[in-house]
Hints:
Helix content is 56%, strand content 4%. By secondary structure, the protein is mostly helical. It has 2 domains: 1-33, no CATH class; 38-108, Hypothetical protein, domain 2 (Endonuclease III, domain 1), CATH 1.10.340. The chain has a two-stranded antiparallel ribbon.
Amino acid sequence: MNGVEKGPGGKPRCPWALGTPDYIAYHDSEWGHPLHGESELFERLTLEAFQSGLSWLTILRKRENFRKAFDRFDIERVAAYGAKDVKRLMGRRRDRPQPQEDDHLADCAFR
């Protein structure tokens, strides 16, 4: 096996991408493509942090919710989050540290 399989439409894809339409779309349009821009990179870093303990498929399916919660990953806005914003994000999490880490990550982008 060479690590590539034919998927829908006969297009070659990685075997992991063939499980769901969400993975196929991610594979075809994002996976392996370079990211450009602060918001795009910040989004990926944040999603990767939230992925800990979850499947990437779960994150992909909730990505639009993350975009809304984090002001479309606008670094300046997230860096300016105050206690009220952190509390709002904490209500979405069972474990507490990650929203604060994302705020810190955004803040560090300006230093």
